[in-house]
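>> received
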Amino acid sequence: MDTIERVKKIILSPKTEWQVIDTEETSVSKLLTSYLVILAMIPAIGWFIGYGLVGHNVPGIHMGIINFAIRQAVISFLGTIGSAFLTAYIINWLAPRFGSKEDFNRAFRLVVYSYTPMCVAGILYIFPALSSLAGVVGLYSLYILYLGIAPMMKTPEEKITTYFLSTIIFVILIFLLISMILGGLYF
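>> returned
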């Protein structure tokens, strides 16, 4: 399946698309290079255009707006890739605790495809005034993650919610950690 079709289907009909994804065998490296890298570039490019070319006043930024835009684009890109791996690792690590199948490949597919709406909404960073809407769309990504836990990780119905909530706690911690680490880098 091509990337655009998968993006449309995971956003518009996630329940049925998870059933299709469940039957596929896509390696981590193939999913990374043919899907995640492409989608992770959307918010990165949005950051660069929105903050570097369209313009936005950022208080306390003394390094020049283009340098700031490049820095934010790199942080966005690396943060998306890194958090996908870390979140998949956590989901895989938590799996046996919730009667789920421990399989990093399946956990990575779950995470990557659930990131789809969040990455696509990254186009909103082109217009700094609309950038907060990208965060709102992130909530839909969480819903897609929730829908994918049962088919991808083979989680029993009665444990889906606690598995999901445990994952969300770890994901929040991961995002905070990555933000602190990458936010401390200056180019």
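>> Residues 3-183 form one domain.
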